[in-house]
Amino acid sequence: DGGITQSPKYLFRKEGQNVTLSCEQNLNHDAMYWYRQDPGQGLRLIYYSQIVNDFQKGDIAEGYSVSREKKESFPLTVTSAQKNPTAFYLCASSVWGSVNTEAFFGQGTRLTVV
Amino acid sequence: KQEVTQIPAALSVPEGENLVLNCSFTDSAIYNLQWFRQDPGKGLTSLLLIQSSQREQTSGRLNASLDKSSGRSTLYIAASQPGDSATYLCAVTINQGGKLIFGQGTELSVKP
User: Fold this and answer.
1) Taking Cα atoms as reference points, which of A14, A6, A15 lies closest to residue A93?
2) Does the beta-carbon distance from B42 to A40 stay under 8 Å?
3) Cα(B77)–Cα(B86) distance, integer angstroms
């Protein structure tokens, strides 16, 4: 089945620890995105990548890092610099540069600080 | 700066009712608009995408309209069912990329 796979579904982080969220897609999409969702709020863009080995900051990039070494993969690292990391994280992908740029989402990773 | 607003934040209706969810955006220079459905604890499922040159899109019992000049979109759900209960999010794309700007969503509850 084509789609986006996020893992793990649940993740617990201790204070001062870095954790990495996985996102893999087999849709052959150029662009990939990471969003953060907090209760009662819409999604906010953390980072996005249009092409392999290139990525740009979104609206709330502080305390996060990403890499795009392969077209299929766009992992997100939540660093110890992110002071309030507890949230629901969603990865998405789409074709870049088309009027039919429909975004497809994974099932999300819920990160909790313990 | 583009802002997207959805009203109401929550809506409860009896089964069988037709209903309308509203989405407004502040800058009419959008590339397209998408409506999504989100079940609790799950990711987003794309329902409808309307290109900026289009006025509406339909899929089954769902119909989405777009009025760029007034900065508004509506999602019409016909003959609502309990299975339609979810949060509905609208989002606009402001350039050729797929970056989305989201509203805060409308939480819909359809009572049997």
Assistant:
1) A6
2) no
3) 12
Evaluate the omega torsion of the peptide bond into residue B14 and state whether it is cis, within 30 degrees of 0.
no
Q: What distance in Å separates the CA atoms of residue A43 and residue B60, rounded to the nearest whole number?
A: 27
For chain B, what is the mean pLDDT? 94
Q: Residues B43-51: what's their mean pLDDT?
A: 94
Exposure string for A34-63, b = 16+ CB within 10 A, e = fewer: bbbbeeeebbbbbbbbbeeeebeebeebee
The 10s digit of each residue's pLDDT in A33-88 is 999 999 877 899 999 999 999 999 999 999 999 999 999 999 999 999 888 999 99
What are A's interface residues with B at a Cβ cutoff of 8 A? 4, 6, 31, 33, 35, 40-45, 48, 50, 58, 88, 90, 92-108, 110
Structure tokens given for B23:
């989405």
